[in-house]
Design brief:
The complex is a heterodimer of chains A (about 550) and B (about 130).
Chain A (H helix, E strand, L loop, with lengths): L10 H22 L5 H9 L3 E3 L4 E5 L5 E3 H14 L3 E4 L5 E6 L4 H9 L17 E2 L13 H12 L14 E4 L13 E7 L5 E7 L11 E8 L3 H15 L10 H8 L1 H15 L8 H10 L13 H9 L1 H10 E3 L5 E6 L10 E3 H14 L3 E4 L5 E7 L3 H11 L13 E2 L14 H10 L3 H7 L4 E4 L13 E8 L2 E8 L12 E2 L4 E2 L3 H15 L6 H8 L2 H8 L3
Parallel strand pairs in A: 6-7, 7-8, 16-17, 17-18
Antiparallel strand pairs in A: 1-2, 2-5, 3-14, 4-5, 4-13, 8-9, 9-10, 11-12, 12-15, 14-15, 18-19, 19-20, 19-21
Helix pairs in contact in A: 1-2, 1-4, 3-4, 3-12, 5-9, 6-8, 7-8, 10-11, 12-13, 16-18
Chain B lengths: L1 E3 L10 E4 L17 E6 L6 H12 L5 E6 L6 H7 L3 E4 L4 H8 L17 H13 L1
Parallel strand pairs in B: 2-3, 3-4, 4-5
Antiparallel strand pairs in B: 1-5
The chains are: A alpha+beta (about 550), B alpha/beta (about 130).
Chain lengths: ~550, ~130
């Protein structure tokens, strides 16, 4: 089994996770014995990953910075089989959700998770959540520095933070190390973007107050350039300002984006900088040895440059159209010659986006061991990524994925849909999301057609909390409830590409569930007719405006 | 209500009772001679007093008694201790036994705070230095 090329727990990390499980076991016992009320128990279970859905408890397992080893993935499959219904759901925050956990089993499931150095801490609740990173980190051609080093530093600092465990609301951090943003850095409570300044130094742009939900806002730059070793001091200052001044009178106005919006980014900056000035030279300043110690664990696997043109690959490309399309959409360049980054699509036509059975997880783990240094990534688009595949292995990887049903050549295409769990699982939802995604992906199943349509991101949320990120979909679909009828509001023009972060605009009146596919079909037809060379759907929309699209869905009246 | 403190202070000590909306950095001479500060948790999910406590201890150098009052429950103790609270007014049954246990519940901490505990990172660096020596 290959060594992992990311952070490995030491005795301290293991001790902390073990002690946390022991504490939670006691909390569960006290809850069952009636010593804790549900109100008292709720934040305790949430910060251990246990969320109450419509039908059962859901366990949200942290996959820090979306990086997971084959061995860890096999354990997730085992837990899904033993304590759930044999499948799991990969989320937009690079986590895995098991939907049918029993309360009394939760501590045992967590103990099993700890066997492979994983946990479910702070995947829910009003705390600093699991930090997300670029799913191509450590392999991307355009990367300045591996963001996961910083994610791990933040993970440790934020875990059981004594001051920030009862924040006004949840707090989500994302870090990118590439100029091509793949983490939606401007729609997080704090987004961190590594970049190189004029002096050749690498530091962070700190972005604050972005977010979707009921009040979608694009994050603002709090600081242009932060020296890397002061990251924790700056984050602690930011969180302290938020903890002291964030609103607590209204759940819907409690995120940091509302604070920034209400006091203005200048005032926010003044407060954070004052706090930071008082703490920047404290023990929070990261020693070079600390950074090096963690960075060393993310050292890339020793890949040797290989040939990039492989006859078998070229031959298969000519004889098999599905393989050729898959190379185009699901295979991305790698920084080492003769290698590639492969995305396994968890969106086969007609399937719930992001779901994987235990057997599929094991199959994927086997592929990672054989062809990708035993390592995998979860993307925020709910797919799985093999970061280090030799080009000569692509036919074998494709065949193995095909056998699992994960070789759909649709990454970035119209059926690569992000959808929240919706009313099928979620107590907050107004409408179902998964069946809508399924009917769209069934309708547009033809791969040739999908590739003709090109890059088009559909994102579906079952309520205004926007877990399906509908605000930033090229086509966003929001489920609403009108007098007990599930209707869907369509918006166009959202985007999360860096520099292009935009929120979509509502196209017109919400449509009934069985009209959604028809509407999307009309929008696509309008685009195909109007596009000029190389334009994506969203480019055509930006050029023409909403009118022609509106007419195609609602007619001329 | 039971006040938990190693050596309880006499009732007439100079005391400051602060709501969790108070900006402790603006207290100025109101802190002079104070030996007991009582911070309030109106709801246990309202975490503002944790920041107040750390600022009092770590920024303002307050060394007197710091009491958590209001919705103060067993499961907050590890956090309260790390933020500098050393006295607790809790109505919860079993709180005092839990307080003793909470001191050793977590052998590892990641964040440097005013409680002076060595963080995992500090211990790692010490260990590495010892190996190198």
């Amino acid at each position: 089994m290959p060594d992992t090329h990311f952070y490995r727990y030491d005795a301290y990390d293991r001790a902390l996770v073990g002690e946390r499980i022991a504490q939670f076991r006691d909390q569960v016992r006290r809850r069952i014995a009636g010593e804790l009320t549900e109100e008292q128990f709720k934040p305790l279970r949430l910060t251990n990953g246990l969320y109450l859905q419509l039908h059962a408890y859901m366990l949200r397992i942290a996959i820090p910075y979306g990086t997971i080893s084959a061995r860890q993935l096999r354990k997730l499959a085992e837990i899904a089989r033993k304590y759930d219904r044999g499948y799991g759901h990969f989320t937009t925050r690079q986590n895995l959700q098991l939907n049918w956990i029993r309360l009394e089993d939760a501590p045992d499931a967590l103990a099993m998770l700890a066997e492979v150095d994983m946990h479910a801490m702070q995947t829910s609740g009003n705390v600093i959540r699991n930090v997300t990173a670029d799913h191509f980190a450590g392999a991307a051609v355009d990367e300045i520095e591996d963001p996961r080093i910083w994610c791990e530093i933040v993970r440790q600092w934020s875990t059981l933070h004594p001051e920030f465990s009862f924040l006004p609301r949840k707090f989500k951090i994302a870090i990118t190390g590439s100029p091509n943003d793949r983490v939606a850095v401007r729609v997080h409570d704090v987004g961190l973007r590594l970049w190189r300044n004029g002096q050749g130094e690498v530091g962070f742009e700190v972005i604050v107050g972005g977010g979707l939900g009921r009040t979608p806002l694009i994050g603002k730059t709090l600081r242009e350039f932060l020296p890397k070793d002061e990251l924790l001091a700056y984050l602690e200052a930011t969180l302290r300002v938020y903890n002291r001044y964030g609103r607590r009178d209204n759940l819907y106005k409690a995120r940091i984006k509302i604070l920034v919006h209400e006091i203005g980014v200048e005032k926010m900056r003044e407060e954070v900088e004052a706090e930071y000035a008082a703490t920047r030279n404290s023990a929070l300043k990261l020693a070079p040895e600390t950074i090096e110690g963690i960075a060393r664990q993310f050292a890339p696997p020793p890949l040797r440059a290989k040939r990039t043109r492989v006859p078998e690959v070229e031959a298969l490309k000519l004889e098999n159209r599905a393989f050729a399309l898959w190379l185009k959409s699901n295979v991305a360049p790698h920084r080492v010659a003769g290698h590639a980054i492969v995305t396994a699509s968890l969106k086969p036509a007609g399937a719930p986006p992001g779901d994987a059975s235990a057997a599929q997880m094991e199959g994927v783990a086997d592929i990672a061991d054989a062809y990708s240094q035993g390592e995998l990534r979860v993307s925020h688009e709910q797919n799985l990524v093999f970061p280090h595949v030799a080009i000569e292995s692509l036919p074998a990887v494709w065949r193995a994925l095909d056998a699992l049903g994960f070789a759909e050549a649709n990454v970035g295409k119209i059926t690569d849909i992000i959808a929240c769990p919706g009313l099928d699982y979620c107590a907050l939802a107004n409408a179902r999301s998964i069946p809508v995604a399924q009917s769209i992906s069934t309708h547009f199943a033809s791969l040739a057609r999908q590739h003709d349509i090109g890059d088009l991101k559909i994102k579906i949320s079952g309520c205004i909390n926007a877990c399906g990120h509908h605000h930033v979909g090229h086509i966003g679909i929001l489920g609403v409830d009108r007098n007990g009828v599930e209707l869907y509001q369509i918006s166009l023009g959202g985007d999360v590409d860096f520099g292009n972060t935009a929120l979509g605009s509502i196209l017109g009146p919400a449509v009934e569930a069985d009209k959604v596919v028809e509407a999307v079909d009309a929008l696509v037809a309008t685009y195909l007719e109007a596009r000029i060379d190389g334009e994506r759907f969203v480019d055509t929309y930006r050029r023409l405006g909403a009118q022609p699209f509106k007419e195609s869905v609602y007619g001329n009246s | 209500m039971e006040i938990l403190k190693e050596e309880p202070l006499p009732p007439e000590v100079p005391t400051l009772v602060l709501p969790n909306t108070e900006d402790v950095l603006a207290l100025g001479d109101r802190l002079d001679g104070v030996e007991l500060i009582i911070l309030d948790f109106p709801k246990f999910t309202d975490g503002r007093a944790y920041s107040q406590a750390r600022l009092l201890r770590e920024r303002l150098g307050y060394t007197g008694e710091l009491r958590a009052s209001g919705a103060v429950f067993i499961d907050q103790i590890p956090f309260l201790l790390r933020c500098g609270f050393d006295s607790f007014a809790s109505a919860q049954k079993g709180f005092s036994e839990a307080l003793d246990k909470a001191r050793t519940l977590f052998s590892v901490v990641y964040q440097p705070t005013g409680d002076g505990r060595a963080t995992a990172n500090e211990l790692r660096l010490q260990r590495r230095a010892a190996v190198a020596a």
